[in-house]
Every structure is written in C-alpha cells, then in structure tokens.
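task queued by scheduler; priority normal; single chain, no ligands, no partner chains; default sampling; output format set to structure tokens
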Amino acid sequence: MKEILVIIIMVHEHPFGIIEDEVYANLKFQKVSHQTIRCDCLTIYKAEKKIIKETSNKSLEFLKVHAQGLGNENIFSIFVENASNNDLCLRILKENLSPSGKLILDGPLFHVRCYAQILNLLVQVELDKIAPTLIRETITNVQAHVFKSKSGACAAFLANYNPQSYATVTFGNQHYNLPPWSISILPNCRHTVYNTARVGSQSTQMKMTRVPIHGGLSWKAYNEETTTTGDSSFTVTGLLEQINATRDLSDYLWYSTDVVINPNEGFLRNGKNPVLTVLSAGHALHVFINNQLSGTVYGSLESPKLTFSESVRLRAGVNKISLLSVAVGLPNVGPHFERWNAGVLGPITLSGLNEGKRDLTWQKWSYKVGLKGEALNLHSLSGSSSVEWLQGYLVSRRQPLTWYKTTFDAPAGVAPLALDMASMGKGQVWINGQSLGRYWPAYKASGSCGYCNYAGTYNEKKCASNCGEASQRWYHVPHSWLKPTGNLLVLFEEVGGDPNGVFLVRRDIDSVCADIYEWQPNLVSYEMQSSGKVRSPVRPKAHLSCGPGQKISSIKFASFGTPVGSCGNYREGSCHAHKSYDAFQKNCVGQSWCTVTVSPEIFGGDPCPNVMKKLSVEAICT
C-alpha cells in the first residue's frame, strides 16, 4: 500500500504532507509519515535517474527542462540552458503543443532565456565580498567592482556611468568597450557574459482581423436604476466613507438626497443654472440630476481626489440628486493603505440660489451598495434571463449605466481570439459568466512619446509608449470558455459606449523583428571562451521565427549599422550596410524560422569602422 501511495503522490504532484490529511488518517492501512513518503519518492527518482544515465541507452536523448504551468493542463513557460543545440528541441516541442491549445497566449512566453543563469555563474564561485575597487580614480564615471573568494575565484562588474559616451578600459590586461550607462558582468574576471546595454530581442507585430459572425452581433439592453430604494438601502445624516460603507461587497456606492427648489428662485427665470460642487476622495464619480447624467469626473494616479463643479438643471419642487461613486480604476496599493479613503466625503454645495450657497453635506442622504444588475447577476447565464431586455430600435447607444447582452457561435480554428472594445467607455465584460476584465478605452494616456533612449537616470516619463491611446483595447477570449453555439456576451457600460463597435477578432503574427548588437555578449560565447575552445568572442546570431503554420514571405526592413526606431517603424541611420537584406533574403524567405550571424562579412563589409553597430530586421509572416 505504501508503494501505491508513493506513485499517487508522484503522478499527481501532491505535497508530501497530504499523507497526514484526515482522509488518509481514516483509511484502513498502516500509517506512514510525510518524511517516509519523501524518502521513498527520492529513492524511486534516483533509480530512474540511474537508468536514464546508463551508457547502454545511447539511442535516447534527454533535455533537462524546468516548466511552469497555468492550471492543470496549460503550459505557461519552459526554461532550459541557453545552448543553441536546444533551440531545435524547443521548436519541435512548441509545434507539437500549439495545435492542442495547451500554450498560454499561443506560446510567446513558452521559452524564456533565463538570465538567472548568469547570477548562478557568480554564485558558483562562492564569492566573498571585498571593497569595490576603482580602475583609475582619474577616469570619470568608470568603475570596476571586483569580488574574490579565498580559493582564488574572481568575478567583476565593469560600470560606465556616462549617459552619452562609450568607455574603453583596461582591466586584467585586457581591453573592454563599455557602452554608455551600462554594466558588464565578468563571472571569471576575464570574459564578458552580459552587458545591460547590449541585450538582443525578438519582438512581434500582431495583426487583428475581424472574425465574421453569422448574422452579426444583435444587442439587447437593460437600463440600470438610479434610485436608492430597496431592501439594501439605508439613510443617515451626513456623508459616509465608501470602503467602510460597502465592506468590499461592490465597487459602487450610491449617494442620494432630495433638494427642494422654491418656485420664486431667480435662476428659473433668468436661465442661469445653479452650480453643484462635490468633493470626493476618488476614484470616479457619476452625477445624476433627476435620473439624467449631468457629468462624470475621474481622479488621477498622482491625485485620486476629484471635484465635480458644474451647472445643473433643476426644476421647481423636489429634485433628486444621485451620486454614483466608483472605487475602481486607479491603483489600490501603496504604503499605509489602511488610511486611504474613497467615496464622497464632501463638502457638497449648491450655489447660485436666492439664499446664496446651500450646504448639502449634513442633510439626510440615502445609500445603496452596488448596482441592481450586480444583485441580479445579469452577467451570468441564469441571471441574464431574470429581467426583460430592450431590443431592436429601443437599444440606445451612448447611454450611461446600461447592461448589454448578445449571443454568438464560436468560430472555427484554434487561432487566439480577442474582443475589440475601442468603441466602449468604461465598464466590465463577461463571456458565459466569466469576467474578461474591466475596460476603460475612454481614458487616454497623456504625455509625449518621443525617441527612446534608456541611457541616464530613469523616470516614469522616460521611453513612454502608446501616448494618446487607451491602456487596453483588445481583451483575450480563451477558447476553453467558449461553447460551439450560443455563447453569452454581456457588457456593463458606466459612461456611455456603442456596443455596435464591439467585434470578435483573430490575432495573427503580422511580422517579427530582431535587434542584435555587434559583439553582443551571450552565454554560448562565454562558455566557449572559458573552456578554451575559442579565444575571441563568438559572434551573436539573429533569430527569426513566425507563428505556427506561418512562413517568412518577405523582408520588410534590414539594416546593419546604426538603424533607429522600433519594430514596425525602423529606418536607416547614418551608417548602413548596403547588403543588409541579402543574407535574410537567401536564408529566411520561405522558411518558418531562420538564423543569421551578425558579422560585417555577412553584410558586405564594415560600413563604418570604429563605430559600434547593431542589426535591426523585420520579416513579414504569412
């Protein structure tokens, strides 16, 4: 029985401590401790390991990997040693897994070249830290931090703190060229394994293609109530802090009160409407006057507090002021979070009356936690059938506080799917009762996106991207969430959007890019130099790989020299090798993947001697 337990634990990856669970404690067999189970598992592992290493098994080849999963089936990423002979094994493994849909995001994170290996090289020498040593005190902005062990092992970090100029230094009787604002790592104090300014990468340009849906998306609508009546409502004098009032049951809290306007008020005759001013601790506030949206304001990352101050249309008699406070959209983390407030804390005033300014802060306010649609679970399969939905010409666009629903059939194929939410304002989206997330395309990023140069002290405004755009437009739709027919899509729109602009799209790789620096350090070169197999650094290679079922159809851009820009927007610099395209046209077009060595000889010679060069290339995948 003990042997069976060992197999169960190893196959299902149970923790050793499960043997002490009350379920096992009640079974009729001899009890064992988790320490015993651990030893038995280790014994089986060692036996299998010995069989695998037997020299008689020469027909078998093994690759040591470390994999990470998401759930019980899907593979998230896999880590292997950065040896070039592992690339083919990984490519075959990825091609076999892709059709089954087991790879998260179709596998762009499947193989992660782990820079932790570089740190492992430093740890292996058992370094004892000594005081950092300057190469020369007369050389500005250049330092060498050297660490040695008692056994004589050595590691060094060569740093160039100049944000603009290269530095050529001599260390250990060898010359090193340090790019601006960079650190080179020498695990053996001789050979460079990594430089922070020379990091190669492959990036991808995605193409979103609308998926045709038979009959299109036919939307139905349900308008959220703006009243605070009901079993869950309550009334108190004054204003309440939102987090304490909602107890985290909802991100929404209604504040409602009545304002009586005398028929003799001057603004009713002269048309100069009074001004309502509301101060809130954040994050967002929707103001309704007599069930009509009067305005919306948001806080910011720097200052979540907000103020609504606008003229409002009031009538003689009783007027209903309803404030919907939203505590979502801005970061909810930071020091002393327990002291942070949210919601309408006041003061609230109404100015422009005959009496001057009326303070509404301390009159009676009615409260309601959450939305009616939340209480009815309108996003779920069962809840969506509990109310009557408007349809056809009765479905309004740009209407705040509106629930929308539609159904669609799952498209054929295994290509990654997403929802295009660009036409919506702010809210949340569900498919078959599962939340795809919150959307906020109406909020556009500010700032200026100019030329990106990481050299120099970093700040949050440096190398910004997507200026003037929403933080997210495309929302991934997992295939595992879809049924063959009748998939329920539900939107809750806060501020007013157009559901007719929501589309199901297919994500394809449009092009792949690579940026590789000349003499870029890498682990393969370091290991070959350290072992004495080569004396000079090994030239780096550019790797291009399209998606499953795709091949490289053409080379959109290639430049060995000083190209500028990023993937999709490359352009030649002042230095360019005129045969930059040739090697890629020959080795890559028509192939699903290819590699090209980054060397001046490959591109027709050195286009600009004594200048540090790099290769930028973009290939079209079809």
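post-processing summary
- The mean pLDDT is 85.
- The chain has ten helices and 32 strands.
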